[in-house]
Amino acid sequence: MFPTQLSAVRILDLNKLERGDAIEVHHFDTVALRGQVDAVAPHLGILWIQQNACHGRKLVTLTEHEVWKL
Questions:
Q1: From first to last of its 70 residues, what are the pLDDT tens digits of the chain?
Q2: What is the end-to-end Cα distance of the chain in Å, rounded?
Q3: Which of 24, 29, 48, 60 stands the most exposed, by the fewest C-beta atoms within 10 Å?
Q4: Superkingdom, according to UniProt (predicted)?
Q5: pTM of the model as a whole
Q6: Which residue segments constitute the domains of the chain, with CATH numbers given?
């Protein structure tokens, strides 16, 4: 569960993320996903986010989304 008051830092370099980091993914200035980093492929500009056990993991690309570390 995520706290209601968050301080976030925009991630422009996926090398700064590690598995387990709490992140928020924005698409067109709207929060699209919140969860934890499952895997990162910085050289491809992609990462996988685990929302919770029910939703599985989702692929996120830096070209289409903004990633914020919480």
A1: 455 556 899 999 999 999 999 999 999 989 999 999 999 999 999 999 998 877 789 999 999 999 999 9
A2: 12
A3: 29
A4: Bacteria
A5: 0.83
A6: 9-69 (2.30.30)
